[in-house]
Each structure stands twice: as C-alpha cells, then as structure tokens.
Amino acid sequence: MNSLIKLELARALRNRKFLFFSVLYPSILFLIIAGKADGTTEVGGSGLTLPTYMMVSMASFGALTAVLMGNSERIAKERESGWVRQLRLTPLPGRGYVLAKTASAAVVSLPSIVVVFAVAAAVKHVRLDAWQWLALTGAIWAGSLVFAALGVAIGYLATGDAVRPITMIVYFGLSMLGGLWMPATSFPRWLQDIAEWLPTHAYAALGQAIEQSQAPHGRDIALLVVFFALFAGGAAWLYRKDTLKA
Amino acid sequence: MGDMTTTAETAATATVVGFDQVTKAYGDVRAVDGLTLALHPGETVALLGPNGAGKSTTLDLLLGLKHADSGTVSVFGTSPREAIVAGRVGAMLQSGGLMEEVTVAELVRLACDLHPRRYKAADVMARAGISQIADRKVNKLSGGQAQRVRFALATAGDSDLIVLDEPTTGMDVSARQAFWATMREQADQGRTVLFATHYLEEADAIADRVLVLHRGRLLADGTAAEIKAKAGARRISFDLEGVIDETALNGLPFLTAVDVSGQTVRIQSSDADATVHALYGLGVYPRNLEVAGLGLEQAFVAITEAEEAKQS
Question: Where do the coiled-coil regions begin and end (chain A) (predicted)?
C-alpha cells in the first residue's frame, strides 16, 4: 500500500502544469477579491478584516480546488483506461487506493495554502500570531482531505464526459453555499440553514475560529470527520464494486 | 514416504478453478450460460471462442471482477478475491490500462510490492523481456511493449495460477512467439495457465487442454487433437472423371462433410484411412488425391457450425 502512495505522490509532483495552476490560482483570486480592501474593512459580524477573512477563504478554496479537480477527473480516466481493473487484481484493499489518491492530492494542496498565506502577509499585510499561522495551515490542510475523498468518490460515480460538469457543480455549489467566497451571513435564512450542514461551511468555520483566536467548534470538526468517513468509505466501496469495463 | 505420495496425489487432483452452473447475463443476453468446468494444477488451458463467446466474462468472473447471477465460482477452493489476496493468482487483462506518467520500472516495482509472494522487480522485467525499456514512460510504449509490461504485472510474484485474456493482441508474429516462449517458462514451473484467445493456432500450439466456448456455453473440452477429431480431423480431396455418384460418396464411412464442385470432391473425415479405403471400394479412380490435417481453426468452425445447426 505504501508503494502505491509513494508512486501516486511522485506522479502528482511530476504534473507541473496542474501543480502550477492549483498553487497560483487561489493566490490570484485572493488578490483580485481583497484588492481594494484595506486592513480596516471589516467583514460583517466576524470581527475580522476583509483581507484576513478572504485569506482563509481563498486558502480553503484553493486547497479544495487542488484536491477535488485533481482527483475526480484523473480517477474517472483511470477507470476508463482499465488501470483500476488491473489494480483490483492485486491484494490492494479499497482503502489503500482511496488513501493513496487522498495523499497525492494533499501534496498539491499544501503549497497552495502556504502561497496564499505568503501573498496575504506580504501584499495585504495580514498579521497573525505564530500559533495561528501554524494552526490555520494544519486545519485547512487536514480539512482538504475531506474533499480529496469526495473527489475520489465522484471519480467513481461519474464516467467520461460527465465527470467535469459534475465536479464543477459540486465544486462551485459547495464553495459558494459553504461561504468560501462570501460570508454565509449574507444569504437568506433558509439557505443559511442548509449551508450550515455543508462540509465546506464547517471547513471555512474551522479557519475563521482560529483567526478569531478561538478553538474550532467541536461541531465543525465532528461534521468534517463524518463527511470524511462518508466520502472515503463510499469511495472505497465504489472501488470494490466497480464493474466498468475497459 | 507413503504420506508424501498421498499429499502429492491430492495436490494433483485438487481443483484450481471450479465453475459450477455459472450464469451471468447482461439484460437478455446470457454472456455465460450454465458454465461448469474444472481446471487442475499444472494445466495449460486455452479458452477458445469467437468474439462475444463469453471468454472475457468468464475470466472476469474467475477473477472476481464480476459476480455470477447464479452458480458458484471457486479458485483454490476459496472465493476469487481471497485467492488474489493470498497472492495465488496473477492476471493480465485484455487492453488493461496502465498507470500513466510513471516509468515501466516504477510500475513493475509497484506490482511486486503489492504481491504477497513477490519476486524482485529486476528479475520480473528480465523474464518479461522489458529490462531495456525499464526507464521509458508507460504512456510512450508500443502495443506489443505494453502487453509485455502487463505480462510482467501478472507475473510479479509466485502465483499458482496465471490468467491471460488475449495476451498477444497487438503483437507481431515474432513478438508473439517470444511471448509464448516466456509464458511456457511459467507453465514449466508447474503453474496453471489459463489464457483466452481467438488465435486458434495459439491454442493448438501451446495448450494441453482446449475449452471451446460458444454463446457462453462449453462446446468442447479436450486436447487440441481431440477437438480436431471431434470436428472431423482430416480433409480429403480428389478429382473424379465422368458423372459423380454423390449418393455413393455420402455412404462412405466416418464422413463429417462432403462437398462436390465440378469434378473436384472435398471430404472431411474423422478416420481418413478408413474413408479412403472405402473410396477405392466404390470402384472409382480418384486422381490428385490429397489428405491433409484440419487446422484447429477449421475444426473450430465445424464445431460451432454444427452447434448452430443443432440450435436452429
């Protein structure tokens, strides 16, 4: 199982085009959105400045992009090529495959988080305590694993031409409704009620709590753990029962 | 001593692969239809049939990639998955994709690492004849090279059963011969080898047992020689002068087919000696007499045609 993880990691790092795109894209988005705001603009109700708020949002969004986009399409392609069938003729358990895919996605998402932080600190003068930087990096990185597993599951549910649109819908839907682009507090009440249960909402809340010098809420962590188990378990199950022919 | 003999005998008669009344349908089409068969240790078995005969489905069921609608499939007395997890099965799928963006050596190393009874990657590559392309990217291989890499993945460890689904697809004649030489080494080590093919000469040349599959059912099971005999093993052709008495020709013993065109007569016989002897007994004088063995291909066509005639 370890050798598959190692090989998947090497592959992810060799894909320079994807690496470049997924690492720089969230930073650029951050600069565009936080562009005109200065350090005194506050985001309603959070007590945070806009650049700080957007930094965490975009780091989360960037990590989400890297893991979701990378995994789903790639896996769908690997299923169609028949590689997954070949892999199923080895003793590799389903969780090994899901783990390897999740790990390789995590390698790409870490730099995308760090780069957003660096850009925010350098260009928008975002200042936080050392523990906050570290906690934010850790929380956002760990949280991205939930969506890496979701990417694997989508790669198993969809085939061919359907993968990209489905990934896009899930990706934008989760990002917007979860409040990664704008605070969920600006949504109508009913939408907020739904959004509260989304993994992206819990994901964003994790970072915001740390920014506000608080410990993340137990509910958010629990929600993310449940979603991770759901996505990873579903992906492993789909891997085992997949009967798609090359 | 006595105990050892008993153990050896038990091993020799044990079933490597057992299909018991296995059926698998896709919609209305029964890809595998009540298939019952048993493979024994050390056999090299060809699964022969035209496209759509159910070969790939049979292998998928054997490997646990598909599940039977009814009946049971066992491999070494366990489920296919358990046999794979125990490292007893190595398999090469038809047009099975390979992981992209990695080198041949990396991929073979992965397969070796995943195998519970692994061999050294260098040895596996040497045996599969891919050492010289070890550093090449997997997505830059020719069809024949990719097949050899797949073969390496199937032989990455000490498996007792090797399953190959149309392994020589995309290979030219010399590559094919080299491939079968490699595969014979696997069989000579006492492994059971099962391969699907529609290259009939391969079944004839390599297998010591041939299973003919047609519409998901087992049409014939025997040595290549037996299969040929079953279908009418020899073709006899000759010319006759004057009016040909077809009724008399049809009365010849051991006939399986008669074809008269102009003055030329072509006969298929399951016992050519007896047929020719009786032919002279008719008082005719056949010219340009030729007796030739039927290739397995013709034997195969004859068997399937007979089966189709029976059904319609």
Answer: none
